[in-house]
Amino acid sequence: MLSAQHPTRRNILKAAGGLSAAMAMGAGFVLAGSTPAAAVGDGFGLRIVDRNESDPRMWYYRFQTDEIGWNPGVNVLLPDDYHGSGRTYPVLYLFHGGGTDQDFITFDREGVRDWTAGKPIIVVMPDGGHAGWYSNPVSSNVGPRNWETFHIAQLLPWIEANFRTYAEYDGRAVAGFSMGGFGALKYAAKYYGHFASVSAHSGPASLRRDNGMVVHWANVSSGALDLGGGTVYGAPLWDEARVNADNPVQRIESYRNKRVFLVAGTSPDPVNWFDTANETHVLAGQREFRSLLDNADIPHEWYELPGGHFIRHDMMQRDIDGIIDRLRKA
Question: Which of 22, 70, 186, 238 is the most exposed, fewest CB within 10 Å of its CB?
Fold first, then answer.
């Protein structure tokens, strides 16, 4: 759904930037273990076109890739002791929400440095488009926008080749806000062996409920903001196989043996119709998802809190602490 950590800045255009979905690349895709390179460089179909490593913790890169028609960026937040410790660290892939004010610097603005101060974890925060939905779209009129391929097949192995991370299931977590929360749930299910922890902060977990509201939202928002009239799932008829592959409530067994963390608001802002629509659907979808997890005896941690569709800093910090507890220790 639309990211809205600053409610006063919302508008209808931003409201279009909601959730995420993507073409299945095959659940059998497995990364080989890698030895971190001596220096960050190109590879895995990525070519660095801009970089800044002057900040001791927050390193920035911008890539050229055939999978995206422009040069997406990524922030890599390193632990305080990364440069002197020689240790290997678990890694969190943290995804931003949708909207014209959301990109890979979102969590730096929100306070991710404070949330992780002194903590032994690397946080990778990549571009996902204004309404990319962590997806390889059915159609695009503006060139390639294959965010799923970029994240899973290119960026993830590039990170593990260039930073001291555990290239294994127990070394990786994925989390996100809004559209990014959906992307996290989707990737954790479709690439079961990649992530031991998954978190959705105001991220929808059900695509088909309410006559497919989330699928329609993904199509409309992506067409308006990212694809020049193209769509994530296809219109007027959906690609049903893609919806099935991406829909968390249809992939319940894929969350077994993972840490699952869910947050949703219970009192959307009555003044802003899009906030109400966003969090109302998020809450209903997460409740459906939680019920299915309960029926399958899959443990999960969940919170329903006052307020609408925005990033809750205390929940992010709680989540990061839980991620560190779950993953392999540095």
Answer: 70
Residue 82's SS3 state is helix
- Strand, coil or helix: what is 194? coil
Residue 314 appears among annotated catalytic residues: no
275 is catalytic: yes
Asked if 247 and 208 touch (Cβ cutoff 8 Å), the reply is yes
pLDDT tens for residues 129-143? 999 999 999 999 999
The two tokens of residue 290 are 């939680």
- Is 220 exposed, middle or buried (CB count within 10 Å of its CB: 0-12, 13-18, 19+)? middle
Q: Tell me the whole-structure pTM to 2 decimals.
A: 0.88
Helix (H, G, I), strand (E, B) or coil at 259: strand
Active site residue: 135, 140, 178, 206, which one? 178
Token output for 35: 């030895």
Considering 151, 194, 281, 309, which one is annotated as catalytic? 309
Q: Please indicate whether residue 96 is annotated as part of the active site.
A: no
Distance between CA atoms of residues 328 and 164, nearest Å: 13
Domain 7-24+62-326 architecture = 3-Layer(aba) Sandwich (3.40)
